[in-house]
Write a structure and sequence with these properties.
By secondary structure, the protein is α/β, with parallel strands linked by helices. The protein is built from 15 helices and 22 strands. A 7-stranded mixed beta sheet has the order 14-15-16-13-12-18-19, sandwiched between helices. It has a 6-stranded mixed beta sheet with strand order 9-8-7-10-11-21, sandwiched between helices. Strands 5-6-22 form a 3-stranded antiparallel beta sheet. Helix 2 (58-74) packs antiparallel against helix 4 (91-114). The radius of gyration is 23 Å and the shape is globular. The structure holds nicotinamide-adenine-dinucleotide and (2E,4E)-2-amino-6-oxohexa-2,4-dienoic acid (6OD). The site of (2E,4E)-2-amino-6-oxohexa-2,4-dienoic acid has 10 residues, from helix 5.
Length: 464
């Protein structure tokens, strides 16, 4: 039974809830659900640790980040096993992306924080400089699709900036966070600096509304983001939102078609399409449309199958497959449920799917599906491609495939998205701003922008 981690200690409180293995549907673990007393106890522990943690020189906190990275390395296999048990991810992806990014996140922010200069301005007769103070206690609420990657993406900058944290992982994927709690304890991290509580959405809501939580960083659906915004409004708490997406990919006729097909396969089907950065809308220049569709449809039937996180999410994805057919789509690949003839038939798998022929105004093309599926449509001109890509209520990421350097820069700069990848996908420099526009989020994290969110500057001006 997974227990909460509060003040450096395991806390077994609250009723139990099950976590299912998405590969087989079997119960893989039981977890304690936090109640209001547990949430309050975690926030109090974070508050009690906040003063001493904030008082440490940033170089010492950077050293703690490096020790946590070493702790993750030491428990690498346990973290991989816990993540796979909760999500059904492939071993290859978990050991090359999900867990290594946890190490990279802590190491990157140790350096970014240690090397960050403070502002100072010299005007005739005056000197102005800034000092930064941490927010205090930060609520960290994260989703199920990249559980460890996204939790550590938030924890590293929050902690190195001098905050203490209360983390609520997704109720669907608590395992790797529970191992991380042990890593914190084994590293001798001061009690109360990191607190981890488990439970469903209402536990997250209790954390957001707690008067002693000074800021909230959230990654999850736009729907939940709006709920959190309302909860946080009455105390005007700083919020950082990384929300949903409906990302476009633009394939120009002057692209390297082999690279574009493989790039589209990766950006549509990675993690079963359960990445906020995945492509769900592909737009292909008309002269290569038929060939591209034919090649993508073949490849869609060859990709590794990854289960959806839950039976409910699988039903949601399948409902969009049915919707596409009801809206008159042509199904080029997939569209149903794979039959394995083994234990996986009790899991939450769907077929990787490619459809075409739908209107830009179909629900299929307007709403985030968050599965291994995309719609492909033709375009004629560059201007039309840009308008199609920008015609979404979301604006998180986009990909662009062309061998023309001029076109790459020209088009990329006109896309309404927080992130644009050219002839690649999900290549990450952790120093760069990360986040989306419109329904995809508020604010940017990444590099010093994370440090800006997790701390407040004071400008001090002295008359010389
Ligand atoms: N922009 C990004 O970087 C990014 C990254 C990953 C996932 N996502 C998005 O997350 C969604 C999938 O993840 P999900 O299903 O876990 O999202 P979700 O919004 O259902 O849940 C995310 C987290 O919020 C908690 N939560 C739910 N209701 C809450 C409330 N009222 N108050 C406080 N916390 C609450 C959940 O327990 C979970 O821990 C997709 O929409 C995806 O696009 C975005
Ligand atoms: N925030 C990041 C990824 C988000 C993925 C969304 O599913 C990252 O790579 O830092």
């Amino acid at each position: 039974m997974l227990t909460h981690f509060i003040g450096g200690e395991p806390v077994a409180a609250g009723k139990a809830f099950p976590v299912h293995d998405p590969v087989t549907g079997a119960v893989v673990r039981q977890v304690h659900e936090a109640d209001p007393e547990v949430v309050d106890r975690a926030v109090r522990a974070a508050r009690e640790a906040a003063r001493d943690w904030a008082a440490l020189p940033v170089g010492e906190r950077a050293g703690w980040m490096r020790r946590l990275a070493e702790g993750i390395e030491a428990r690498f296999d346990d973290l991989v096993a816990a993540e796979i048990a909760d999500t059904g991810k492939s071993f290859d992806q978990t050991r090359t992306l999900d867990i290594p990014r946890g190490i990279a996140n802590f190491r990157a922010f140790a350096e970014i924080a240690a090397q960050r200069p403070d502002d100072a301005f010299h005007l005739s007769g005056t000197l102005s400089y800034t000092v930064r103070r941490p927010l205090g206690v930060v609520g960290v609420i994260v989703p199920w699709n990249l559980p460890f990657l996204l939790m550590t993406w938030k924890l590293a900058p929050a902690l190195v900036s001098g905050n203490t944290v209360v983390v609520k992982p997704s109720e669907q994927t608590p395992g790797s966070a529970a191992v991380f709690a042990e890593i914190c304890a084994d590293a001798g991290l001061p009690p109360g600096v990191v607190n981890i509580i488990f439970g469903h959405g209402p536990v997250g809501q209790l954390l957001v509304e707690h008067p002693d939580v000074n800021g909230v960083t959230f990654t999850g659906s736009t729907r939940t983001g709006t709920a959190i915004m309302i909860t946080a409004a009455d105390r005007v708490k700083p919020i950082s939102f990384e929300l949903g997406g409906k990302n476009a990919g633009l394939i120009f006729e002057d692209c390297d078609l082999d690279r574009a097909v493989e790039g589209a396969v990766k950006s549509v089907f990675t993690n079963g399409g359960q990445v906020c950065l995945c492509t769900e809308r592909l737009y292909v220049q008309r002269s290569i449309f038929e060939e591209f569709c034919a090649r993508l449809a073949v490849r869609a039937q060859e990709v590794d199958l990854q289960p959806m996180i839950s039976a409910e999410h699988r039903e949601k994805v399948l409902s969009y497959y049915a919707l596409a057919r009801s809206e008159g789509a042509k199904v080029l690949a997939g569209g149903g449920v794979p039959l394995f003839g083994d234990h996986r038939d009790s899991g939450y798998f769907v077929e990787p799917t490619v459809v075409t022929g739908l209107s830009e105004w179909s629900r299929f093309n307007r709403e985030e599906i968050f599965g291994p599926v995309c719609h492909v449509a033709p375009f004629d001109s560059e201007a039309e491609a840009i308008d199609l890509a920008n015609g979404s209520d979301y604006g998180l990421a986009a990909t662009l495939w062309t061998t023309s350097l001029d076109r790459a820069h020209r088009v990329a700069q006109r896309l309404e998205a927080g992130l644009v990848w050219v002839n690649t996908w999900y290549l990450r420099d952790l120093r760069t701003p990360f986040g989306g526009v419109k329904l995809s989020g508020i604010g940017r994290e990444g590099g010093t922008r994370s440090l800006d969110f997790y701390s407040e500057p004071t400008t001090i001006t002295i008359k010389l």
